[in-house]
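My current task is to audit a protein record that another person submitted. My question to you is simply how this chain folds and whether the tokens agree. This is what I was given:
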Amino acid sequence: MTDLPLYTAEACRAIDAKAMQPLTDGGLGVSGQELMQRAAQFALDTLLSRCPNTALISILCGKGNNAGDGYWVAMLAKQLGLDVQLIGVATKHQLSGDALLACERAEAAGLVVEGPDSPIRGSVVVDDLLGTGMRVAARSGQAEAIEAINALEGYVLSIDLPSGLNADTGSATLAVKADVTVSFIARKIGLYTGRGPGLCGERLFTNLGVPDTLAEPYPNLPLRRWHPGLVPRLPVDTYKQQRGHVLIVGGCKGMGGAAILGAETALRSGAGLVTVATDPANLSGLLARVPEAMWVDALGADAEHTLSSAMAAASVVVLGPGLGRGAWAQQVIGALASYDGPLVIDADGLYWLADTAQARTLKNRGAPLFLTPHAGEAARLLECSTGEILSNPRQAVIDMTERFNATCLLKGPGTIIGTRMGQAICAHGNPGMASAGMGDVLAGLVGSLIAQQPSSPDMAFTAGVLLHSAAADQAAEKIGMRGLTASTIIAHIAALLREERSV
């Protein structure tokens, strides 16, 4: 399977409700208590497999319906003879429905529900404070409980999602940092993007016996993986002009390496021809590192004509790697306003797109435009704060797509890709990618794949994003995340492409 469906909190609750409907209404006829017991059994099995010698499990339950899962974990643990500390952050009269019934069953089984001020005594903690219904920052009592959990040095399992994490956006202010998160029935978007990957720890999922067919009517956001079919095989009779010509524009004084990284990646990922328009000071470095690349003088007396000629020959222009914010960059932006081919904008190219009226005309060229910002660059493009971007990264991608008539992404944990057909989340990536030059490699890669697939540029862009992160993961497995450099992953990009063609 290449894609996994991710759902909003509203959709997840609707799927839950559908499962509990009678068989005659298209449901499963399963009770809420049965679903809670199944979820609790999975959570407890997960916990004991990772902490087999635990002496005491502390379980913290909130007041929402999901609190019932925690009460059932306590009952099942007690049946196994384990010591259990059960803390109710909400009082019993604040509970209702299946959560109240589960609490009453726990008490009937001999468990004592301690009050919210009780200190956590166990070294293994089950977080069941807040579920998918959480739409605001944790309130008083809940906030204290979250802080108490995070202050521990023990092992933390979160049920459904780490308390405080927004299930739809992956945003969080105060949230539990879990070692493992178990989720049920349908995968929530917030676990896979924004702060979700950093807060969830290990992610485990079970459908609790609810078939996928119950979720099919509900819109979903795909979690997309790199796979062979995203990049077509090379025809036996191909020649270099058919594989596209990428023009890299960048590399001002002191930042030549960025343009060189982009050029090397473009060639190593299959582009037939690559030209670099850059400062002459970068020529020796370019020839030493990428002798296959061509060069044009972007600063000479006839620079404007030279650049125009280079653009006319290009299948794709990649603007931004090492571009800088000086007079030369401004001149380049002016020349590109008349370019009528696919344009990839990264790094300082995004600065100029946000800052110059002339650059804004790029969105109206009638040709495909591709943007690759991180949160800070996205904030500049949308004229808002970085915090606003991070509070709803998917909406930020939608807004950029509409404002600039572009295909774009938002870099970060759970990178979100936005095309004219909708959004998707990249399933790959690791913290080692937060290092210099990674964006330059990505820009060269997507430019190369777009040049090779001119009839399906959005698909090529998506493939580039997935391949870039998958290669970074492969490299990190071999050398570790701390030693991961942009140069390192170029070879892994080429290796993944080679592997896919050998299938």
Observations:
- The chain has a mean pLDDT of 93.
- The longest strand covers residues 56-61.
- Residues 240-501 form a domain with the UDP-N-acetylmuramoyl-L-alanine:D-glutamate ligase fold (CATH 3.40.1190.20).
